[in-house]
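Hello again,

I reread your note about wanting to compare the complex against the isolated chains. To keep things tidy I'm splitting this into two emails, and this first one only covers the full assembly. Below are the input lines as submitted, including protein chains and any nucleic acid or small-molecule components. They are followed by the predicted structure of everything together. The single-chain runs will come separately.
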Amino acid sequence: MNATAKIGLFALAVLLALAVLVLKIEDLPFPGKARAASAEVTFADVAGLDDKSAVRIAGVRVGKVDGIRLLPDGTAVARLVFDGDVELRDGAWGQVKNLGLLGDKYVDLFAGDPTKPRLPEGARIPGRVPVEFDELTKLASEIGKDVKELTGALSGSLGGESGEAKINRIVDNVGALAEQLKNLVEANRQNVDVTMANLREFSSSIRETLARLDRILDENRSGVKGSVANIEDLSGKLKISADNLNSITGKIDSGEGTLGKLVNDEETHQNLNEALTSIKTGVEELRTTLTRINRIELDLGFYGEYATRTEGWKGAFRIDVTPRENKFYRFEVIGLPDGRRYDETYNYETSIDGGPPTTVTTTVSRTEDAFALSAQLGYRYKNTTLRAGLIESRGGVAIDQQVLKDRLQLTGEAWDFGRPYGNAQVKLFGQWQTRGAVFLRGGVTDVINPSGRSFFFGAGIRWKDEDIKTLLPAALSAF
Amino acid sequence: MIGLLTPDSGTVEVEGEDLWSASRSRRDEIRRRFGMSFQEGALFDSMSVGENIAFPLKRHTKMTPGDVSARVAECLSLVKLPGIEGKRPSELSGGMRRRVGFARAIALKPEVLLFDEPTTGLDPITTDVLARVMIDLRDRMNPTMVTITHDLKVAFEVAERVALLDRGRILVDLPPREFEASDDPRVRAFVLGDGSEDAESGSPEEAAV
Amino acid sequence: MGFLEPVGRLALDALEFHGRCVTLLGLTVRGLFRKPFDGRALATQVVRVGFDGLPVVLLTAVFTGAVLALQTYVGFKRFHAEAWVGSVVALSMLRELAPVLTGLMVTGRSGSAMAAEIGSMRVTEQIDALVSLATDPVQYLFVPRILAGIIVVPMLVVLANALGITGGYLVAVRLLGANPVVYVQNTFQFLDLNDLWSGLVKAGVFGFLLTLIGCQQGFDTTGGAEGVGRATTAAVVLGSLAILVSDFFLTKVLF
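Full-complex prediction:
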């Protein structure tokens, strides 16, 4: 082969590679190829959406973002270019979503009502603001506050107009929370939907109970007006309404865990009981709670665990909220190495207008997919910590024992007692805190299931309070 | 003499024109009238013998390829090495390489031929062959030839005039016979190879014209 | 004051090196526009630097892409971001690794060869012979080599890009079991044509630098065979350094 032929071959190969790269990178418009359909979505907040992110309808990739720009009114417009022909109709809207926990953002499109007329090419459709975690926290705390205010109002006025308004507000807030929580988690956890449904049952149950309460209060009012002799009757009825409230909060508290923790402020629960017996304590408790929250501590961390049997990595992100020295709330989002699918049956009770309690049974197909949530309440007494609540989306308990001046922590955890296949999950491990933020851990997981038993080891990082506090000012200001 | 090195002092004049005050292209024009042969031949070893000799022809003339190869053959026969165009310089002996160097130097029919140490480091027979080639070239082409050499035998054989250079100065400039008979002590030392007489004069060089 | 001397000498050497490079560059640029333009010499250099350099450059690219995929996969798996291996491989190949590694390989292969060739021409008086034949050695030797560098290194980088991405793809899909469609999609989703062009601009600059330094080191060789060895080493060392240092500044300017 002479020099000219070599150069020819070389140049040809280079041109070919260049052509492939350029065409792959940029979808150059070929003459004859129809111009791609496009649309624009306005967002109040694109939440970190990037140019060239995917556009999906019902999870199916249909195009990509082709430029994001700011409008003079402070909103953002993302231009979407579709790969094929996408029919957007009246009522279409989009929102920014996450693919996975750390995955990329994408635009989730709802194509609109198929019976409505088609939108023109390049039409501008509204975008919805994605639900943020801190908004949820804010909402949950508002509910807690409302409940407190209600008890105060209830005790103070024995059912004035304001008490009633507040009750309605609680109900509305619970409903809104359920909606928002649903939006947040629907991408990852279908099973939460079921919980949501349950919660809606509860809220309707609350509404019914509250209607009854209202009637009782009306009766009371006439009773007070009418005769002192009715006082005994009044207190009896008051006790009934208190019991009703207790049972509502009890239901929320135990109600499938996930929401129980998010909705319920443990203290509020206690305060509710106390307030009903003593008005003064209730008000004071409210006051101390408000001051105490300024001293709240927030720890942030994440860790990974490698199990030798499954050879899979489990990664978790953790938030510890410590309102008091010996008490903390723990929230974790955990990426599990492998997902499973199985059926599960739910029972829940509801009673309508004082009628006999009815048991409703629902069977749903649940997906234990790549993500699980933990939400626990922990108490520390000297070197021992007890935790209870959700562990990896299942009810469970745990005990931590600190030894060697807190450097080493021995932990036993047990959860998922109603596991359809096999015994409950039991996990025993030790965790060594280095002098820095890093910790190392290792132990045995799924101890009492021979088929699942595995050694594991892992490492993680824990950041203490101070820096993090500034990161989540919204969450704190919500209190 | 053709400006390989920029002079520290003094001027180089060719027919009254200062080489170093001339423009670059003018300097190249002047250089084209010179042919220079280097000590070891300095052939381009990336080319064949023929390409070496053809190099100045291709760069400085508009000759057709046929004319070029004819001129190459002619030059090679002038140095008594006909028909080795296709060989690589690395295949040649030292003497042959120098003769190819001669051939390259005369390719452009220069008016002045410069030889830098044409015979240094060669055996007496090869030296003799080279001297004869040089005489032959002188007779056939009749250029001005300047040879720098330490070899007195070659100098006396080839030259019409012999000059002794010492530290950049011409000490004497005489015809060969008178040079040999000169009683200048520095010339005597050089001719007799007696270092004791003029130890600090360094290494005088001889120029044959 | 004795310790100051070596420092001073170092500074002077550095200045002289840069001065030489700039001078020779000036001569080269002038030579570029002066006749005769030697197309055949350019073609020879393109074959030597480009075509003959293909195996080493492409092998480097394939394995770089493969290792990159392997390493990022291991890291990304820990936080469930395996899907982005393709993006990382493609981005780092196009913007950084292909130009720099190709530049370094060509320096080692061709920059050193140029220094050795021109250096031995210097010590055997072939460069003087060029002058005596009224030929500007800078024009004759530098112009085709430096032009070849500027043309050929970006060409090699285009192929290195393609092969690097292919290497990453093979490892991710065949070895690690990534979904081929998703991998390809993610590879190109976040790429911009600018990523490609900036890599090629870099490559052109690297090609220019490494050939200029290779030629300069050869041209300024002194001291026989040993000097040629020194020039060859210096061409590789200075060429590589020039590539790495200029890479930083180019990256700052280009992005």
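For quick reference: Confidence is low (pLDDT under 50) at residues 223-232, 255-264, 278-283, 467-479 of chain A.

B.
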